[in-house]
Write a structure and sequence with these properties.
Blueprint (H helix, E strand, L loop, with lengths): L1 H12 L3 E4 L12 H21 L5 E5 H22 L3 E8 L3 H14 L3 E4 L5 H14 L3 E7 L12 E2 L8 E2 H12 L4 E3 L4 H11 L5 E3 L9 H7 L3 E4 L1 H4 L4 H11 L2
Amino acid sequence: MYKRKLTASSFVRKSKLIIGLDLAANMAGKEGPALKAENERLEQEALRLVSQTAEHAVAFKINRQLILPVGLFEGIPRIIDAIHDAGITVIADIKLNDIGNTNKHIAKYYFDAGFDALIVNPLVGMEGGLDSVFEMALNRKRGIITLCYMSHPGAKEGYGLYVSPDGKKKAEPFYHYFARTARKWDTDGVIVGATYPEIITEVREILGTEIPIICPGVGAQGGNAREAIDAGADFVIVARSIVEATDPAAAAAAFAAEMR
């Protein structure tokens, strides 16, 4: 299972760092050859970052702001190949969130492009929602990571709501329910914002040691990598603080060392 790959990579590399390739294209006023050149520049920048920082990471995370301009079946497979050549895996941060038939086709595209794991939204449920995605991941030996509590300030408006799933039991925070759902589904990890260390601790108590906690939101959003690990996180995602650094390799090395 994918969580075992993350754990093995962490053990070998002595790191808990996942690097987010949060690069964005400058499309304003560009068309034709200029637009193509910008997409190629973005791909080359991603490849440069991979070559400079891979030794400090257990995985890379790519989101849609890079996938859309570079192309899921154009530049992205070349970036994925470079990451695989470095001996680590790639997560697609797509927060999959639709009905089952649509989810199935979307997941297939991302797996066909070479991604090792997908981030999905558990809110859509399993039956007729994510069941086909989990089945595909199992058959293709890929991973599924579920959202539990996101890193932005407005997360409390959704993930912090109190709910009673069956209308009978005492209401609990949505993120408690999502944590218990992750255990039931045996996911490869849950996402909890590093900006909320107290929630990381709550989720860890629910998950035990079975499901990894993966925390975005370090740096630009105000989260602290060491605090997240101390609160119970297994891995921390750092994006802008590395990709926008003057020396990305040094920044990645510093974050990896901070979490040891």
